[in-house]
Amino acid sequence: QVHRSALNDFQRSEGRELVAFKADRVTMLSAITLEECAKRCSESIDCRAFNYVFRPSVICKHLPWVGNTANAEVKRNVNCDLYEMKVYIRKCIIGNGEEYRGGVSKTMSGRTCQQWWSKFPHDHRYTPSSTNGLELNFCRNPDGDIIGPWCYTTDPERRYESCNIPQCKDEVCITCNGEDYRGQVDRTVSGREYPDKSLDDNYCRNPDASPVPWCYTTDPEVERERCDIRKCSEVPKRRSRSSYTTNCFRGRGEDYRGKINETTSGIPCQRWDAQSPHKHPFYPHTYECKGLEENYCRNPDGSEAPWCFTSKSEMRTALCLQIKRCADDIEAEDCYNGNGKNYRGIVRKTRKGILCQKWSVNTPHKTRINPEAHPEANLTENYCRNPDGDLHGPWCYTTDPKTEFDYCAIKQCAGEDPPIIMPPEGVVFNECGKRDDRMLKSRLR
Amino acid sequence: IVGGTPGNSPWTVSLRDRSVPFLILSILSLTLFIFTVADEMIFVPVDRKGKHFCGGSLVNSKWVISTKQCFSSCYVDLTGYAAIMGTVFRDPKEGEAGTQSIALSKIVCGPSESHLVLLQLETPAEFNERVSQICLPPERYIVPEGTACEIAGWGETKGTGDETVLNVAQMQVQSNSECNQYFKGRVKQNEMCTTSFFGGVGACEKDYGGPLACQNSDCWVLEGVIIPMRRCGHQGQPNIFIRVSMYVDWIKKVMEM
């Protein structure tokens, strides 16, 4: 974008509305764009937040307070989004805090601040106005002092004192590469900002396994840049050890910490702390929580499965799909004999832990197999049953709209295997498995 | 496929992932990756079509069977995933005649221990001389030892072939009892084996999920699904597959429901 969007100054709260407790101080503008609504609020002297109602018709409502003001109330409203000026809701400061408009009114030693309009106990030359933010007795930094926001104190012995409001970049530290960072830094190390694509999280984030949180910027010349956020001094393991696996992997394998160190095709992996034969950005010290030890298969970047750089110069990376996937079935709660056709227990959960759908209803799945069609199968409630003699055991329709049916959290009683059936000779296949080998030659030519 | 030759397998499909974010794509791509000092990176976009990551077989016009090992979960978001068929090329050119690319719309995981998944196509595949469905064996059928079979895929050849075209390798069924001599009894009833050639023939990376098709008079029957093994085409090592006949009832049930 060529111009900086006014929306960058606001934090969006989707589906929220700030209730006007003084209707006479609300300004209504209809049928204007979101960008225009934000611009006018920024330009208006006492606008600090606005409701942008988009249904049934577009209305922009400017408000002179934010949600954390006394008497203010924020309620749910799916037809409206709330935008609040960040400076009024931020609890930390950026730079020297000249823009700070928060509500702290005590100094670092706990003294109460003197009202800015008052000249007692300390006389001074500052006069509150609608633009300088010298409101009530809140800490402010009208003279750009490097110590940050300060105030005159009500203690006759102490004229003024800093309020010690933290820097946003220090307020929340990041562990590992900051994947879990949810703080309020919203600009890059050189001060560039995030475009207005999605304001409620235009703060710095690390969604793609970069070394540190970053953001896209409004500088057309610079697409993205990392942000300056303090690293926590101690390095706790980001996930509890219990989520780590060593002889199988779950999901994409980010928590796999086993010692397989060759690819599926048996090629030894390259050490992570080596740059040959393949140069790469995954330094163990930069990705300290990804377990990049030795040359073990790992998944530091959200790939499909654990992988590694290979020791073959002509093959840069390869997946380690020979590592088993952990069974993600829940603990079996019962057992069945044979194929479970006669099971009459009360388990009503699938092997993935999804609740079963009742046999007698048709939502979310239409039940072609139901108590009417199978009166003998005891299809009561949503208990697991095997009305069609499925060789893989009792099953049920599920309450997950995406999973029509699934097998249940029931295992076969010990020591039973369904028999192998030897079909009659001369099984005939038609309309399948036909191939015209002559065709290949013509195509490859 | 290690030890194979270019061939034709109209039921074999190439499963494509969604195009991946810059960072991953740039790192895993062998070309156009530019690296600067002071750990900042400049990303240069490379082509954004999904890449071949696993194989599959058409068991009817709307369903493809593959292995769960290729997917991170039974609830994975398949947006952007697709199946390509009707071509022998791993990366067919835009608009190549006969090629069909169909989005995947649903994944259904098989019974536990089957390591199988069924993938529903968003629209039915059009059957012609390039695209056809493979036969399913009778339930719990044990294909006789010595039956002629073949595997097919666009995966790693370990230098024995051209990975840009579909490779096919021939092999014969080996009984589980004989196979268990090599694998010390680890081969289960829901698995099956094929003989190993001394030259080393077998499936490898990115072939997983593809077919082991065995001949039955003039038809080809899907007797096995390729699953990852340690080492590919290792000399003297039999190949292990999931025995499809153990799960034909589940396959039919999913397709019917």
Tell me the number of helical segments of chain B per DSSP (H or I, 4 or more residues long): 3
Distance between the ends of chain A: 51 Å
The oligomerization state is heterodimer
Strand order of the largest sheet of chain B: 10-11-12-15-14-13
Poorly predicted ranges of chain A: none
Structural class of chain A: mainly beta
Q: What proportion of the residues of chain A is helical, as a percent range?
A: under 10%
Number of helices of chain A: 4
The residue fraction in helices of chain B comes out at under 10%
General form of chain B? globular
User: How many strands, which pairing sense, and closed or not: the largest β-sheet of chain B?
Assistant: 6 strands, antiparallel, barrel
**How are helices and strands ordered from N to C of chain B?**
EEHEEEEEEEEEHEEEEH
Mean pLDDT across residues of chain B: 85
Question: N- to C-terminal separation of chain B?
Answer: 34 Å
Architecture overview:
Helix content of chain A is 6%, strand content 14%. Chain A has 4 helices and 17 strands. By secondary structure, chain B is mainly beta. In chain B, the strands form 3 sheets. Chain B has a 6-stranded antiparallel barrel. Chain B has a 6-stranded antiparallel β-barrel with strand order 2-5-6-9-8-7. In chain B, strands 3-4 form a two-stranded antiparallel sheet. The two termini of chain B are 34 Å apart. Chains A and B meet through strand 13, strand 16 and helix 4 of A and helix 1, strand 8, strand 14 and helix 3 of B.
Brief digest:
The complex is a heterodimer of chains A (445) and B (257). With 445 residues, chain A is mainly beta. In chain A, 6% of the residues lie in helices and 14% in strands.
